[in-house]
Amino acid sequence: MSEDHVAQVPDIPTRLRIGVRSGLQTSFKLLKFVLPLYVVVDLLKATPLVERAGGLFAPLMHLFGLPGETAFAFIAAFTLNLYAAIAILVPLELSSWQVTQCGLMMGIAHNLILEGGVLGSTGARAGLLTLCRVLIAIACGLLLSGAQRLWGG
Amino acid sequence: MEIFAASLLGACLLGLKLLVIIVPLVTAFEVLRHLPVFRRLGRACDPLMEGMGLSRDAAVPLFTGIFLGIAYGAGIIIRVAQEKKLPRRELFLMGLFLATCHAVVEDTLLFVVIGGNAWVMLGVRLVVAILLTAILARIWRHTSRQRSEADPDTL
After folding, report:
1. In a mutagenesis test of the B interface, which of A25, A35, A66, A119 is the best target, namely the one with the most B β-carbons within 10 Å?
2. Which of A3, A125, B76, B82 is the most exposed place for a label (fewest CB within 10 A)?
């Protein structure tokens, strides 16, 4: 921390008070973004978005050495969350390497709407960061499927 | 309409959960930050942070985000940012790191349960986040320096 704190450290009750107040301020700042987006995401669950978009992207999944059905899991991971994605992945009976691949890609890019809001609340450029996440996930997916092809696992 | 009400209820529960975690977290941060141990830990992380173009102020938000998740990391970032006036560059670099690499324990375990390899998922994510942030820090430093020559107030 900076020099001004070394000069005068406030006593514990003051710090507690500052802490609680700034904790509340911080929470409200965050909630302004998170709450409306949570409702949006939750309502998306009731729409046929996952089926529609999943069907659209299914042919692309072969680029990653994954079955087309995993596209539905990816759309669910991107728009909803990892739990929704895993529920779709489990019945597909993927190999361990394919699960690792999905886990890495989805670990990097998931819950993009809600977390985009969270990132934006810090003052960083959320749209650009979200685009980066998707691109990084794609790059990592290609990397792992390339590695598997090389070592023939 | 019923679905909407359920969503609102879910949103309120999530809001409550965030409140219950963030307020104690920020309070603990405020009380502990002046301890010498805390400062020494910060100093120990300096070389790695510097390599990623981040200052010591970014260490706490970064580690909170890596282990607890992006919302809690963001909670601390907002707090640190409003107090220290973190520059846009640092906010974006931190965001880039956390966007790729957060809540690593929970995310990884979820996929280990269904048969994934934890070390590959964890390792690649960490390495990619560190590398990308470090690379971007080098590119961006250059342009911000050029801009600061024209207008010294921008730094």
Report:
1. A119
2. A3
Q: In terms of Cα–Cα distance, which of A76, A130, A143 is closest to B120?
A: A143
Flag if B125 and A108 touch (Cβ within 8 Å). yes
ipTM passes above 0.95: no
Asked if residue B67 lies in contact with residue B126, where contact means CB atoms within 8 angstroms, the answer is: no
pLDDT band at A133 (very low <50, low <70, confident <90, very high): very high
Domain extent listing, chain A: 35-151
Q: What does B51-107 look like in DSSP terms, one character per residue?
A: HTT--GGGHHHHHHHHHH-HHHHHHHHHHHHHHHT--HHHHHHHHHHHHHS-SHHHH
Return mean pLDDT, chain B.
83
Of the residues B92, B101, B136, the best mutation for testing chain A's interface (the one with the most A CB atoms within 10 Å of its CB) is: B92
